[in-house]
Specification:
Layout: H1 18-53, H2 55-63, H3 67-75, H4 78-104, H5 108-124, H6 131-134, H7 138-143
Length: 145
């Protein structure tokens, strides 16, 4: 993913450098972990609070399930309903994002952005907060411990 610009052809060409490709894969893996960590955080805070606030309605739904009971239970408890919607929406969006990347591959534009980010991390060096996870080769650092 090399940004080569000529006067005649200013198209982006993927880098042939193996280390850059490995670092881009590490950055992508880190992004996946962080997104799922955010989803777990949301469910463990906002989701638990929302479900706790809806505990009486949930008991009613378990006894007498109707769509009307669900609608009124959520309509009269707006803040817990918004919290649940936030948790569900975030989970579904991360699932769709990760499924797209697995099934169709990472889009070229996102690969280009990640290569730019990796180059910025490399330029800043070990002072960058993501240096250890993205640039440093963990296989050699584990052997040296």
């Amino acid at each position: 993913m090399n940004l080569e610009t000529n006067d005649s052809d200013s198209r982006w060409q993927p880098s042939r450098d193996r280390t850059i490709q490995t670092q881009i894969q590490r950055l992508h893996r880190l992004k996946v972990y962080l997104r799922w960590l955010f989803v777990v955080f949301l469910w463990s805070t906002v989701g638990v609070w929302s479900l706790f606030q809806l505990r009486e309605e949930i008991a009613l739904w378990l006894d007498y399930w109707t769509w009307v009971a669900l609608r009124y239970g959520l309509a009269y408890n707006r803040l817990p309903a918004v919290g649940l919607a936030l948790c569900i929406g975030t989970t579904v969006s991360v699932l769709i994002w990760q499924s797209r990347n697995i099934l169709l591959g990472i889009p070229k534009q996102e690969q280009k952005r990640m290569e730019k980010t990796v180059r910025q991390i490399q330029a800043k060096g070990s002072k960058h907060p993501l240096w250890w996870w993205v640039v440093t080769d963990q296989s050699t650092s584990k052997k040296s411990r």
